[in-house]
Q: What sequence folds into this?
């Protein structure tokens, strides 16, 4: 990111080149942006003087709301009430709500913390989340990221953040009722009684698939009545049985093993330590759950499992059937009775990813899938207006799968089920994320994340630097570094895509 700096890490250089100024630039580059865009003469443009435009960074005040707000385990020197956090980090896939707010998810929040955990009062609990990850130098200049100085700060990250883009002065909120883990996404759909159901993945090897069901239905008449809907409801975690059925188990304090005897004194403890609660409930350990999203046309839910090279042969189960699962797979859930609030479901595997031409890989794309049509390492998904699902990937490379990351459309119904077709390929060194269709299917928005990185799978690749990136997309100017960017793809002459 910075010219002339070279690689900075804790192991080899102890972040020696990092200064307060550089750290503050990094913090300003985290979070998210509210932008207004408008189609002018057939082209999408950013509205430069929009009243909605704002940045939300790793330093923006964000309220904690729901059962964890004010709890002793989220109080700090700077916030003795435990009700307001500075910033949101590692924002991954998210979702939108029917009341017009945006959910952004805190994923690998562990990486921002440093310090000794041996003497930390919650050492085991931190370890379950990989804290401290020590991937950034922030703790050198902001003591709240130093565990020895501010032991509770990690409990204030790992949440879903709700932002109201239509009220520019509104304070974003961390919705603690939805649980604390490495959130990949938060895609919602209505239950039969109009409660809002948000599916969520915890992106870690051997972690879990969750859903949150609001306590009350969405009020279609009064937006105001929905603005705190995500503070009350029940978080559930999935358990898959070998016979193709499954259950959603509630994470409720006092029920089953979630008691004082096991270290849960209140619902706040269940939510802060959602992973440990799910461990005790015996949830199914998955191959890195990424996006989890329902198809509103069919009611089926797609769980993207990106890969898990650490699964051993004696750890396979029906829902995670491959040892050394290098290419990932997609599980399809069908809620019983067609109701997303149901606590039981049936499931099947839509596709095991990888090259179908190599028998040992065990891929299950349909025989109609061409040699360019298959993919590995699925990550995010979008559903178009016709109910076809589109998968963007993270982890393909010339060395690993002979292809860059990109987006593929895959059939889920009828004779074509499991047929995948390639649509768009990423620039070198990037992953593809954020697929989103306009309601008329005439524009597909895509995000190109971290273009220009070296191929991690290629031992001969020279590590990318500011001066020598793998590509200078999208400017292709020697003075410009590669820039992560959002694309808008439309059909020549207009009309529906694909
Ligand atoms: Ca992820
Ligand atoms: Ca990703
Ligand atoms: Ca990923």
A:
């Amino acid at each position: 990111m910075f010219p002339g700096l070279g690689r900075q890490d804790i192991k080899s250089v102890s972040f020696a080149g990092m200064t307060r100024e550089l750290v503050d630039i990094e913090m300003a580059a985290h979070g998210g942006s509210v932008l207004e865009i408008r189609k002018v003469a057939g082209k999408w443009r950013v509205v430069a003087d929009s009243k909605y435009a704002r940045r939300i960074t790793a330093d923006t005040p964000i309220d904690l709301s729901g059962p964890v707000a004010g709890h002793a385990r989220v109080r700090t020197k700077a916030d003795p009430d435990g009700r307001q956090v500075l910033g949101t980090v590692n924002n991954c896939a998210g979702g939108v709500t029917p009341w017009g707010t945006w959910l952004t998810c805190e994923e690998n929040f562990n990486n921002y913390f440093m310090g000794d955990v041996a003497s930390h009062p919650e050492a085991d609990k931190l370890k379950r989340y990989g804290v401290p990850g020590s991937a950034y130098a922030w703790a050198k200049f902001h003591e709240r990221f130093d565990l020895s100085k501010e032991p509770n700060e990690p409990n204030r990250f790992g949440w879903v953040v709700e932002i109201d883009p239509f009220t520019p002065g509104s304070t974003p909120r961390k919705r603690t009722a939805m649980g604390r883990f490495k959130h990949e996404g938060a895609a919602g759909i209505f239950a039969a009684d109009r409660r809002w159901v948000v599916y969520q993945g915890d992106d870690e090897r051997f972690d879990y698939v969750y859903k949150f069901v609001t306590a009350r239905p969405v009020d279609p008449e009064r937006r105001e009545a929905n603005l705190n809907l995500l503070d009350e409801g029940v978080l559930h975690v999935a358990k898959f049985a070998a016979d193709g059925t499954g259950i959603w188990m509630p994470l409720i304090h006092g029920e089953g093993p979630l008691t004082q005897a096991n270290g849960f004194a209140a619902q706040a403890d269940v939510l802060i330590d959602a992973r440990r609660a799910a461990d005790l409930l015996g949830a199914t350990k998955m191959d890195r759950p990424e996006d989890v999203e329902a198809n509103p046309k069919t009611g089926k839910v797609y769980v993207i499992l990106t890969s898990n090279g650490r699964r051993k042969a004696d750890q396979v189960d029906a829902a995670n059937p491959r040892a050394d699962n290098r290419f990932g797979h997609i599980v399809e859930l069908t809620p019983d009775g067609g109701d997303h609030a149901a606590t039981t479901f049936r499931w099947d595997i839509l596709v095991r990813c990888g090259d179908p031409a190599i028998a040992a890989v065990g891929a299950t794309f349909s025989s109609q899938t061409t040699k360019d049509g298959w993919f590995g390492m699925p990550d995010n998904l979008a559903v178009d207006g016709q109910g076809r699902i589109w998968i963007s990937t993270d982890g393909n490379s010339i060395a690993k799968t002979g292809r860059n990351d990109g987006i593929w459309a895959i059939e889920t119904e009828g004779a074509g089920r499991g047929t995948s077709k390639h649509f768009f390929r990423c620039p070198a060194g990037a992953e593809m994320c954020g697929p989103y269709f306009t309601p008329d299917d005439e524009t597909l928005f895509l995000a190109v994340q971290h273009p220009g990185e070296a191929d991690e799978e290629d031992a001969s690749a020279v590590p990318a630097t500011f001066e020598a990136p793998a590509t200078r997309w999208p400017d292709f100017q020697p003075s410009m570094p590669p820039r992560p960017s959002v694309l808008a793809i439309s059909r020549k002459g207009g009309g529906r895509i694909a």
In short: The CA atoms of residues 28 and 57 lie 5 Å apart.
